């Protein structure tokens, strides 16, 4: 299985604090989850994939279809950001347009699609997350969980080569968490997700446990989540 992302001795220091410490992993599975305590470094690891965070030492390489070859996001952030769809934890950081339909359409702008195709993609993306009948309401009239689903829809509509999600189920009820899980399973491109939702992590192919900026366990979900529980029980 050839890796779509490789972290090679990645360290990241912010204000004298080591947020990431010597992370070396090659990710090639279809579904990878990152779990770990608050502040352990999961979001920062994800952010290295699209140059929202840049390693102080070591490097990240992305190798995805459509890229001219392996790309270091810190050096070519335009290429990385075009290939990587990033769903933020806080949908309000992402949802910017007055209505859901306009918000998904905005995310498609850089693809310069003909209007009928763009509109079809908007409709399909909203249908996928159960927001068809909310397409034209004010985004402020959506519930926070619906805004989180809208943020996922807007990113999925762009057909990213890699889907990165930072705690995508924090605002979702049980039914919508399942919908999100099914969505992750159905997406045809690789997905990496940071999550405190252990059911979501358990549905992935591989789970990395992050602690103090290091990957301290890296395994199939069963053993990795057991290691995570043991880590927190000891804390
Ligand atoms: N730009 C920054 N400036 C200062 N500190 C930062 C910065 N980015 C991350 N950190 C610190 O790095 C640590 C790891 O943060 P990160 O957001 O990656 O953790 P996390 O595992 O995603 O946590 P959570 O589960 O709470 O979302 C935290 O202590 C955070 O305060």
TrEMBL record:
CDD domains: ABC_cobalt_CbiO_domain1
Domain of life: Bacteria
InterPro entries, alphabetized: AAA+_ATPase, ABC_transporter-like_ATP-bd, ABC_transporter-like_CS, ABC_transpr_CbiO/EcfA_su, ECF_ABC_transporter_ATP-bd, P-loop_NTPase
UniProt KW Phosphoprotein keyword: no
Keywords in alphabetical order: ATP-binding, Nucleotide-binding, Transport
Keyword Transport appears in the UniProt entry: yes
One GO MF term: ATP binding
Domain ABC transporter: 5-234
Membership in a protein family: Belongs to the ABC transporter superfamily.
Protein name: Energy-coupling factor ABC transporter ATP-binding protein
